Amino acid sequence: MRACNAGTVDRIVRVVVGLVALLVALRQGTTPLAYVLYVVAAAGLITGIVGWCPLWALLGVDTCGRART
């Protein structure tokens, strides 16, 4: 399993944004915007729940807050 690179606040924000994007997408029906919002919602929810973000890993960002040695 990969190490955590998304801290608590980061994960909460991702889940909230994912839920909001999902709710807005559901209201949009089958428009192209809805499909974009579904992707945003999935990415936010998955990375928020798992605690690891591939983009953060690629950029070398770590918001976990653990001490660096």
Descriptive account of the structure:
By secondary structure, this protein is mostly helical. The chain has one domain. The protein is built from three helices and no strands. The longest helix has 21 residues. 20% of the residues are buried.
| Radius of gyration using CA atoms only | 14 Å
Quote the average pLDDT: 90
The major beta sheet can be summarized as:
none
What fraction strand?
Answer: under 5%
Helix content: 55-70%
**What is the number of strand segments?**
0
What structural class results from the helix and strand content?
mainly alpha
Could you name the ranges where pLDDT drops below 50 across 5 or more consecutive residues? none
Q: Roughly how many Å apart are the termini? A: 21 Å
Principal-axes geometry comes out as elongated
Specify the number of helices: 3
Task: Briefly summarize what is shown.
The chain is mostly helical and 69 residues long. It is built from three helices and no strands. The radius of gyration is 14 Å and the shape is elongated.
